[in-house]
Amino acid sequence: MENIIITNPERWGKIKEKFKTGDAQQLQVISDFDRTLTTNFIDGKKAPSLLGILREGNYLTADYSAKAQALADKYRPIEIDPLISIEEKKIAMEAWWRQHFDLLIASNLDKIEIEKALHQNSLSLRTGATEFFSFLQQRAIPLVIFSASGLGEEGIRFILKEKQLMFDNIFIVSNAFSWNEQGQALAVREPIIHSFNKDETVLQDFSGFNKIKERKNVILLGDTLGDIGMVKGLDYDNLIKIGFLNEEAEKSLEAFQQAYDLIILNDGSLEIVNNILKEIIL
């Protein structure tokens, strides 16, 4: 497949054989959400993230969109530039997320508006997503969605419920708000998860950890270099890392090849992931 790069073919063959010696009860999948399980483009145009949907619509106060876009224009280039160090990215992303959460709360974010925005502007899951979710659910393989999304747990849960894919094998580790009785956001839960501190947000702290800790074969899905850190704190034996390189391919390919075992280019589908699952779970 021309959209697929296997970083080290010899190692790739060996690691798949190790996964085949296990079974479904030894496997778990840890995945980012925005631009990993969802597409990066829709009809040739850049797809909005969960937060982007709010930014582009009239769901909050009148000045929200311009202020949010200004933050994105400032910090997004830092996030995707492979020449900027991880430590510098962490500082910038912490600043971006905190400023944006403060802006959301000041802009009267509430649960009803989140649901309205996501219902009217549904994100596009990647081709093969329904098969992916169903395969894992049917075999009781945990799927940990580890997301730095600004709308966090509430937004992801709503999207999956609306698409009838919020199964009981799915665990969401993400940002979350505290709300008042009217459903308005009051504060964001600490610690804040952003795109480059997933290595500092240890999975032992989430409520479903006991259901995954004995599963020693891990498949990781991400679309940034920071997503590699999602496995920190897991005591695993075997790991397959699959990266979606959606943009800036020429600039970022070398760094992705150092980080991931398999790279999916050009906003590709989940079909290769589904094929891998079928191959290792006989």
List the helices and strands and how they pair.
Elements: E1 4-6, H1 9-20, E2 27-31, E3 41-42, E4 45-46, H2 50-56, H3 64-80, H4 86-106, H5 111-120, H6 129-138, E5 143-146, H7 152-162, E6 170-173, E7 177-179, E8 185-188, E9 217-222, E10 238-245, H8 249-259, E11 262-265, H9 271-280
Parallel strand pairs: 2-5, 2-9, 5-6, 9-10, 10-11
Antiparallel strand pairs: 1-11, 3-4, 7-8
Could you walk me through the main structural features you see in this protein, from its secondary elements to its overall organization?
- By secondary structure, the protein is of the alpha/beta class.
- The protein has one domain (4-44, 124-280): Rossmann fold, CATH 3.40.50.
- Helices cover 39% and strands 16% of the residues.
- The protein contains 9 helices and 11 strands.
- It has helices at residues 9-20, 50-56, 64-80, 86-106, 111-120, 129-138, 152-162, 249-259, 271-280; strands at 4-6, 27-31, 41-42, 45-46, 143-146, 170-173, 177-179, 185-188, 217-222, 238-245, 262-265.
- Strands 1-11-10-9-2-5-6 form a 7-stranded mixed sheet, sandwiched between helices. Strands 3-4 form a two-stranded antiparallel sheet. A two-stranded antiparallel sheet has the order 7-8.
- Strand 10 (238-245), helix 8 and strand 11 (262-265) form a beta-alpha-beta unit.
- Helix 5 crosses helix 7 (152-162).
- The chain is globular, with a radius of gyration of 18 Å.
